Structure of homocysteine desulfhydrase:
Amino acid sequence: MSSSPRPEPPVYDWDGFGFETRQVHAGEYPDRNHGLRVPPIALSAGYLFDDFDDQVSRFDGSIHWRAEDHAGRATAPSPSEHAPIYSRQGNPTNWVAEERLASLEGGVVSVAVSSGQAAITSALLALAQHGDHIVSTASIYGGTRILFGRSFARFGIGFDYVWDADDDAEWERAIRPETKAIFTETVPNPCNDVTDLRRIAEVAARHHLPLVVDNTVGTPALIRPFEHGANVVVHSTTKFLTGHGAAVGGAIVDGGNFDWAAAERAGRSFPLITQSSRAGVAPMLERFGRGAYARAVRESVVNDIGPTLSPLHGFLLHQGMETLSLRMERHVESAIRIAAWLEQQPEVESVDYAGLPSNPLHARAVRDYGADAEGRGRTGSVFGVTVRGGIEGARAFVNGLRVFSRMTGIGDTRSMVIHPLSSTHSTFAPELNERLGITPGLLRLSVGLESAEDLIRDLRHALDRL
Ligand SMILES: *Cc1c(COP(=O)(O)O)cnc(C)c1O
């Protein structure tokens, strides 16, 4: 009847599309039963095997996970072609989130897990084992420092911290033959002291060490660590990626850009990636190439230990990421405005926001995070403010807030405040806190999506109580 041409086939490979397009579409797959437009919540612990031989091939690894053969794929795989075994290792809802995040970060594969702490633990346990060593920058999330100093110490994995990441000699002193990774963050909190990733990546490359970067506070909307030489990115998806503060989650992204074979030849051994785990099975590197590290994380760490992300949370995560760039624009715009305003208030001693022209890291902030119309660097929406009067000033200020929520947490729609010295950093020795700049009058703010005028009014009201 009609001679109109057939419709264009749907797109499933979103490489080459813009960030905003990929945050909406990357990772989606067709629902051949009902045409569901929104990827559904696949609440099933297990999956039917077609027959005996299908079960055999799923277990012997001859069928790959969808995520691992993502690169270059032009046709839609159906979920059944992904050949899952059990939801501890992977789930169709979580694949959407994993593929979307890998696309936004510019990596090849990602693995979703149950929390940011699970992501950091899994990422590093795929690289280091008993007797090994990791070097981290000193200014990192308090929970991560506790994880390294307590649980990793019990696993027999040692840490050394570099205090001045711009000092090559300090790195050279810290790195040992048994070092297996360098760990850092994009925008550390509470002090917003952004790292020079390119410089750290050069140190890592020189020593054949993978650089693992926590990009929770930066988010791929503001900075993509792989473009600066990182090899692995980890996230607490609890924060900006999911975006609404309702779901704890985490993820590991493999940049696919680390030369594991060259590291092995140089004496840095990564057995989970480069060596065979059992007779007759080739090493991950041979089987999965650029996705070998992520496969080791999924199969040899996450599957053993079990920090699985619930598909309900995977759903909230892939929904949240659809609006990431829009939310980050607003978060950053309000944060810069508030940081600049706070700096002018007589009750405020200092503001730690790298993007402000008064901050020593301003040039780096603008170079790596871009600038707003007034030349201020866009270093996220989590930063420190120090009020007059030490601990008593901090108490009066916190108690005077009405719109800001007094709570632990960062990076959702709500603005939040916490006093690091008596919370996130309360278990650290006084000398350590002093060195980290965690003073009695320091508060951490996470600027949310409320109207900036209301937030400024709220802060002014609280400062009036000092
Ligand atoms: C919150 C946070 C974590 C821990 O994530 P959870 O999801 O709470 O386990 C790790 N790193 C950074 C930078 C964080 O902000």
In short: The first strand starts at residue 109 and ends at 113.
